């Protein structure tokens, strides 16, 4: 009897881990991409953007991810529901949301928004809020979810704390870039 229960438990655990690993591959890519962008902005590797003095270390947050997944499952390209921004004990939530043919394309497009952002004047010439959120200096937690909605994926990433209308980080001198090369 004990052997059957143990085997059933292990089979269930293996099935869960297999599905979770398969699911988390894309989420792991999204998380790593965000971490790399933050590293790049600190190391003078985002063209046209000054390097950041310091960015908070960002960690994956299951609560933010679960909420993002719930929102993505609705397949609605809007975030008008105030409940989407009430997550746990977080005081403020920032959010990137969009529908794209691939998840990789979403990440690339969000990063490419840096071309529309003028750090000196803190203005956007086109979309740049997704980029600003990715490099927001105090963001310590991220959680994302996605869902296939028609031909595209709806991708939602929640960030805590969220952004504001200020500059996303304190810049160090660009002359620091030349010293590290």
Automatic annotation (TrEMBL):
UniProt key word Signal: yes
Endpoints of the signal sequence: 1-21
CDD domains: CAP_euk
Coiled coil: none
Taxonomic superkingdom: Eukaryota
The keyword Signal is annotated on this UniProt entry: yes
InterPro entries according to UniProt: CAP_dom (IPR014044), CAP_sf (IPR035940), CRISP-related (IPR001283)
Occurrences of domain SCP (ranges): 25-166
Pfam families on file: CAP
Swiss-Prot/TrEMBL keywords: Signal
SUPFAM superfamilies for the chain: PR-1-like
PANTHER family registered for this protein in UniProt: CYSTEINE-RICH SECRETORY PROTEIN-RELATED
Stated name of the protein: SCP domain-containing protein
Organism ancestry: Eukaryota, Metazoa, Spiralia, Lophotrochozoa, Platyhelminthes
């Amino acid at each position: 009897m004990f052997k059957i229960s143990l085997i059933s438990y292990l089979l269930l655990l293996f099935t869960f881990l297999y599905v979770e690993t398969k699911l988390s591959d894309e989420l792991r890519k999204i998380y790593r991409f965000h971490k790399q962008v933050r590293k790049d902005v600190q190391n003078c590797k985002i063209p046209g953007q000054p390097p950041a003095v310091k960015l908070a270390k960002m960690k994956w947050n299951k609560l933010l991810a679960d909420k993002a997944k719930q929102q993505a499952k609705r397949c609605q390209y809007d975030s008008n529901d105030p409940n989407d921004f009430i997550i746990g004990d977080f005081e403020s939530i920032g959010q990137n949301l969009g529908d794209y043919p691939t998840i990789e394309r979403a990440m690339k497009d969000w990063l490419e928004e840096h071309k529309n952002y003028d750090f000196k004047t803190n203005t956007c010439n086109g979309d740049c809020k997704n980029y600003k959120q990715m490099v927001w200096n105090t963001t310590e937690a991220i959680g994302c979810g996605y869902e296939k909605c028609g031909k595209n994926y709806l991708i939602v990433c929640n960030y805590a704390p969220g952004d504001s209308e200020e500059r996303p980080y304190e810049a160090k001198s660009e002359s620091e870039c030349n010293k590290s090369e």
